[in-house]
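Revision sheet: structure tokens.
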Amino acid sequence: MVALSFAKYSGCGNDFIILDNRFRPLMLTPHQVQHLCHRKEGIGADGVLLLEDSTQADYKMRIYNSDGSEAEMCGNGIRCLGDFIAHLEGERRPLKIETFVGFKTLRPNTQSFEVELVQDPIEPSIAKLEQGWFFYLDTGVPHAVHFLEDIENVDLETWAPPIRRHPAFGERGANVNIAKRTGPQHISLRTFERGVEAETAACGTGAAAAAIAAAEHFGLLSPIHVLTKLGETLLVGFHKNGSSYQSISQTGPVRQVFTGIAAMKESYGT
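Predicted:
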């Protein structure tokens, strides 16, 4: 058995297990990640975040989805990691974090941290599927966004999987988002996430993608308020230059739920 000291975090209901992986580095297997994230037999989470050393930044973040696959980025996750680091260091300060998709900057604010998800210009494209028109864009993770008047009554667990793996979105597939405009600068959002293979309570990169899609579709201006499933709000800012969007940032609440020590077998399954 391996004893793991961990912190459980929530970013708008998007929950994570955070491990300090700097001193006795772990090489987690997919089965170990699945067990840690299991909501009945493990700690329970949408994913596992590892805090690691970096030679080019303050720290490095690795993230694993609950199915054991390694993810590219996570907007809620990196803000939770910022709060975890602040607890370790005893202060909030600007942080440069190395991720799978490059370096991300965290800036402390009254809620937690603001993260610059995308610095370089991106342009949303449009895909016509059997289910309708979708905006497609990569905000650190690929996302497909569809606007509806009624998002509450959609059975997302059934409706989203064929879209998540649709050939139009390549081999990686895409997270699937349904969104609704609810005010001059407000949208509501639900997200079906790759790697979790289910709807999550929130998705940071999905909120950013939906906000940019709303700016493109409805002409909404920065910043855009994105209401998540649990009723909390992520604020997405950006700069528009012609048909492209850049300097896409996000902020929102995070909280440490609890800390503990988990006893983990060295292997699970085969």
